[in-house]
Amino acid sequence: MIKVGIVGYGNLGRGVTLAVDKALDMECVGIFTRRDPKTLKPAVDFPVYSMSELTNFKDKVDVLLLCGGSATDLPNTTADLLKDFNTVDSFDTHAKIPEYFDKLDKVAKENGTLSAISIGWDPGLFSIMRMLFGAVLPDGNDYTFWGKGVSQGHSDAIRRIEGVKNAIQYTIPREQVLEKVRSGIAPNLSTREKHLRECFVAVKENANKQEIEQKIKTMPNYFADYDTIVNFVDEQEVAEMQKKLSHGGFVIRTGNTTEQNSHIVEFSLKLDSNPEFTASVLTAYARAVARLKKEGKTGCMTVYDIPLKYLSPISEESLRKNLL
Fold first, then answer.
1. Per-residue confidence at 71, pLDDT binned at 50, 70, 90?
2. How confident is the model at residue 218 (pLDDT cuts 50, 70, 90)?
3. Which residues, listed in sequence order, are joined to residue 64 by a DSSP beta bridge?
4. Does 220 sit behind a cis peptide bond, omega within 30 degrees of 0 on the bond before it?
5. Is the pTM of this model over 0.85?
6. What mean pLDDT comes out for the span 119-140?
7. Among candidates 81, 85, 108, 64, which has minimal Cα distance to 299?
8. How far is 295 from 165, CA to CA, in rounded Å?
């Protein structure tokens, strides 16, 4: 039985709780929170502890599933946790993944631990498809489209701005561009040409809306490269939107094997709940981290470094017999 700990209990933490409950080979040692544990009512009846108690579980947890945000939580906490625990996280700031990897790889190797980073559907499953499609069709072009849906990381980044009470952000693909790619046309597209970002923001009383809008639209790695619409609404409206956290997207590659023969390959996701699906991917990779650590692996890994068989609770023999 793989013993796991869940760090953080927001939308992603709740999703991980549900995913771990479905995993017959996993046991949740506890949910660890910065809030008062007595105020937490998890979706599954797992024990809840204060983060200050986590060090007491050093030898009782095979892997921690980290459910913090990519803007500030994971960059500021993962390295310290990795000194004592194996970890898996969903860090999704694409531009900063290389430096995040290097930092954690050093810490993990120094402490004999193992970390899988940037696990989810993008980065994560979409990353695998981009690599796979490119290997199969080297003469071609990649296109990734997200949405329409709620981006957890971008919503969290807005909520970190001073004066913001709550916020939700929708990523919207430009349909005409998407259909053009699907038709076999292979245009060179900038980030701005493929997507629009729309934000709904509730602010504190007397907050400077103009300043907040400027901070959102110029935020590097999140909004600066996109056409972004900022709508200021009341807190109740944001809360109503947050009841449905759907998302999805497409990875498409167009390529040629000869001048006469061209091909289009596509992988798509349509998700009722972005955090619950991301949590399910995170949980599968937590299984892989626990197994690889037993084999003596240390350091930092991404989806490119982990063989698919380690994700499944099914035996290798059954995989070959029933799925191959």
1. confident
2. very high
3. 5, 87
4. no
5. yes
6. 97
7. 108
8. 46
Residue 18 has which token pair? 């549900």
Residue indicated by tokens 């803007």: 71
β-pair type (164-173, 149-150):
antiparallel
Instruction: Report the amino acid identity of residue 189.
Output: L
pLDDT bin (cut points 50, 70, 90) of residue 152 is confident
Instruction: Give the tens place of pLDDT for each residue, 35-59.
Output: 999 999 999 999 999 999 999 999 9
